[in-house]
Design brief:
Blueprint lengths: L1 E2 L2 H21 L6 E7 L3 H17 L2 E7 L5 H13 L5 E4 L9 H7 L11 H9 L7 H12 L8 E5 L6 H9 L7 E5 L6 H6 L3 E4 L17 E4 L3 E4 L7 E4 L4 H4 L5 E2 L6 H18 L6
Parallel strand pairs: 1-11, 2-3, 2-4, 5-6, 5-7, 7-8, 8-11
Antiparallel strand pairs: 9-10
Helix pairs in contact: 1-10, 2-10, 6-7, 6-10
The chain binds guanine.
């Protein structure tokens, strides 16, 4: 059984990016620049944004952080997005989710210039993803594909089950796993109203769990020899930790791992890859790969 080490893979990719950035800078280009917009003080969002800024440093990128309090108005946020859209020093930016309830998330996402939408959340990037056209891919599914490729997991013609149908993970993941250029697998998507989920999972050669329910996938749901990718990152209380919580995946790792040919752990699996793919998207934005600058 192989443990799919997302942390080590992400470290390798960040070194590859840093080497490319130094070459770019030596030949006169400016450093790629990622901006992040953070609203409020949600613990998870604070941690994600901090890690994104640290990843920028590891890759030799410039970064900037724009902070608002929870009571920011939608108009103020849209004005900030407009400024970032027009700021030529910024190659790409993200607005960290979730947003306060009084702000319309979809309006915010659609206000971002799709050429700077390194999260890949704008409908143009989502649509281009579905069509298999070059664009910024949503970072988590992109990171999972990268792990599957770097670990030489055979995909063509295999049966893939995706648990979850979110806009950020389940939907793009299932599309990419279906596409000839990416997974080239036969895909089933299960969600909260699916019947016989355990039976579906047992058919999977590749099982991707992205439902945010700690320990949902148990040994009886996994076919021996399957590849299991755990996207769950739910904070569960843990008094033995200084932070008071630990991250829990969607998979009962201890009982499922012995059955698998390969499995990604939580933490240290998909999470580090997601941030790393944001860096790759920012590099692509700086180079004008998908959209002319
Ligand atoms: N919140 C949770 N995941 C993400 C992400 O990938 N991007 C942004 N902007 N917010 C998130």
């Amino acid at each position: 059984m192989t443990i799919i080490d997302g942390k080590a893979t992400a470290d390798i990719i960040k070194k590859e990016i840093a080497a490319e950035v130094e070459q770019m800078v030596n030949s006169g280009a400016k450093r790629p620049h990622l901006a992040a917009v953070l609203i409020g003080h949600d613990g998870g969002s604070e941690t994600y944004v901090k890690n994104k800024i640290l990843a920028c440093q590891a890759c030799g990128f410039e970064s900037s952080l724009v902070r608002f309090e929870d009571d920011v108005t939608e108009a103020e946020l849209l004005a900030c997005i407009d400024r970032l859209n027009r700021d030529e020093r910024v190659d790409g930016f993200i607005v960290q989710l979730p947003l306060p309830r009084h702000i319309n998330k979809q309006r915010v996402i659609e206000a971002i210039d799709h050429r700077k939408d390194v999260d890949g959340f704008h409908p143009i990037n989502v649509g281009r993803t579905a069509l298999g056209l070059p664009c910024f891919l949503s970072a988590t599914p992109m990171g999972i594909l990268e792990l599957l490729k770097r670990y030489n997991i055979e995909m063509t013609g295999k049966k893939c089950v995706v648990l979850g149908r979110s806009n950020i993970v389940g939907k793009p993941m299932s599309q990419l796993m279906m596409q000839k250029e990416h997974g080239d697998t036969t895909v089933t998507v299960c969600h909260s109203h699916s019947r016989n989920i355990a039976d579906e999972c047992r058919q999977a050669d590749i099982l991707i769990a992205a439902i945010g329910m700690p320990g949902y996938v148990t040994a009886d749901m996994v076919k021996p020899g399957a590849v299991v990718i755990d996207v769950g990152t739910t904070r569960v209380p843990d008094a033995s930790r200084p932070s008071g919580f630990r991250l829990s995946g969607d998979v009962q790792f201890d009982e499922v791992a012995p059955l698998c040919s390969a499995i990604s752990p939580v933490p240290g699996g998909v999470g580090p890859m997601t941030i790393c793919m944001l860096m790759l998207n920012t590099l692509a934005a700086a180079k004008g790969i998908y959209y002319e600058k």
